[in-house]
Amino acid sequence: MSNVEQRRAENEQTVAGIRARQQAKRRRLKILLFGGFGLLVAGIITAVTLTIVGSVQEKNAAAEAAKQPIEGIQTFTGLSRNHVEGPVNYPHPPGVGGDHAATWTNCGIYTEPVNKERAVHSLEHGAVSITYGSGLAAADVTALTAVAKDKPYVLLSPGTDSGTEITATAWGAQLTVTDAADPRIATFMRAYAQSPNAPEPGALCTGGVNG
């Protein structure tokens, strides 16, 4: 083999080696890219699955809580559902059901008493109303606010009396306690928020009136 042919062969080997290294580098890059993408997709699927499972578990827990008796609770049946204008005299204030305003009160946290006729309409939609006397200590009000915060079907507001009692009310059910830390408050909310006991569970608790 001549020197020229030898150099040509060496150059071809060098070029072939460079190409082989470049191809190997591209393969590694593809593996990293597709591997990373796969991990990202897997992570998203896992997160969505956990969210769905968590939601199902929360609903199941609420359903189970609704089956368990809550000490001190009163229940009521045979409640009317007529839309009326003007005030209604509820025998179990702030009202566990019965005739009510045509518009509901938006669920949320209020620092002033809300309209009781509209609040009862909210109960019809599956809301839970937590009311407290104006004499309740500020620290206890803060504790109740923490329990009710970010609960989409809960109304928290002061009542019209000057006492310190706390009343949890749903359609056809009511519980009165004297301690803001009483665990039955949270149990009541889990059991009755969007409870099938309400005539229209899951209906809107927004889009109504504030207060």
Structure description:
The chain is an alpha/beta fold and 211 residues long. Helices cover 45% and strands 11% of the residues. The chain is built from 4 helices and 6 strands; from the N terminus they run αββαβαβββα. The chain has helices spanning 3-67, 116-124, 138-148, 184-192, and strands spanning 74-75, 108-109, 128-132, 154-158, 166-170, 173-177. It has a 6-stranded mixed β-sheet with strand order 1-6-5-3-4-2, sandwiched between helices. The longest helix has 65 residues, at 3-67. 27% of the residues are buried.
Question: Helix tally?
Answer: 4
Listing every helix as H and every strand as E from the N terminus to the C terminus, the arrangement reads: HEEHEHEEEH
- Structural classification: alpha/beta
Helix content class: 40-55%
What strand order characterises the main sheet? 1-6-5-3-4-2
**Care to count the β-strands?**
6
Main sheet summary: 6 strands, mixed
Mean pLDDT: 84
Stretches with pLDDT under 50, minimum 5 residues: none
- Tell me the radius of gyration: 32 Å
From the N-terminal CA to the C-terminal CA, the straight-line distance is: 100 Å
Task: For this entry, give a set of tags.
45% helix; alpha/beta; 6-stranded mixed beta sheet; elongated; single chain
Strand and helix layout:
Elements lengths: L2 H65 L6 E2 L32 E2 L6 H9 L3 E5 L5 H11 L5 E5 L7 E5 L2 E5 L6 H9 L19
Parallel strand pairs: 2-4, 3-4
Antiparallel strand pairs: 1-6, 3-5, 5-6
Helix pairs in contact: 1-4
